[in-house]
Write a structure and sequence with these properties.
Structural class: alpha/beta
Largest sheet: 5 strands, mixed
Number of domains: 3
Low-confidence stretches: 224-239
Distance between the termini: 28 Å
Strand order of the largest sheet: 1-2-3-4-7
Strand content: 5-15%
Shape: elongated
Amino acid sequence: MSKPYDATPKHLEEVFPQDWGLFLGVKQRVPVTVVDADVSTVTAAADKVLRVEEPNPYILHVEFQANYDATLSQRLLHYNVLLGVRHALPVRSVVILLRREADGKTMTGHVQCRLASGKRYLEFEYDVVRLWQLSPEDILAGGIGTLPLLPLTKVARSRLPRLFGEMEKRFERDAKRADIDMLWTATYVLMGLEYEEGFSRQMLQGVRSMKESVTYQAILEEGRVQGVVVGREEGREEGREEGREEGRADEARRILLSLGTKRFGKPPVKVRRRIALLAESAVLERLATRLLDVESWADLLAGL
């Protein structure tokens, strides 16, 4: 999912983990905390990860998707297994589809793997939330940290001014002053997935706090949304991608060797050398996904 739509919901989840837990069915008074410091040791591509402190705690892994990805179910399985190993807890995986374009035939919430003989050896289930199927009242009933999702729900354009009035009342009543700017800017950024820029501006013109928002005014001066990250500076993508890919590959390689050692034992020198030569994080992550399907280091690397 391309930025800024990638960064915006992840940042909201980081700032308001309790609200996102409530949105995804966690009981209201159950503590929910962000553990994305641990996510980075699993894969740099994973979205936010929450720890739900119920009597039997578990990990809540959330992926946001704005465009269709036929491989998403397999990636969710990959992350689910690695997070379970990392945290030694059950993992519930949820994908939030931000718009209809992200939906497709593979978004079933179910993965089933079979041997060539037809024998089923693995099943994995995840939850799918399709925002455009939710009513705006579903969002208004939740916490302030998920209110910026409201324009992406099943709502007529003619209702948005009144609903934005309700959002403004909630923000004024429940949000910290420092967060109101970020929440409205997040709303504007996410509207870019579904509405024309002129319409989005028109809808938000009547919101008093938006007129005072330095971030929002900066977006308007730029005349574009690209490059704006809600609440924090993500840095320029150009010039940094190579360094990020190298970091992702290093981390994926470390995870592959760690999990492979647990499954097959310490890798021979030749295996370590071969893995060290792999420079693409996607290749290393695919190998990690195959760990459950093979019986040795040699089998794992046979397809390279």
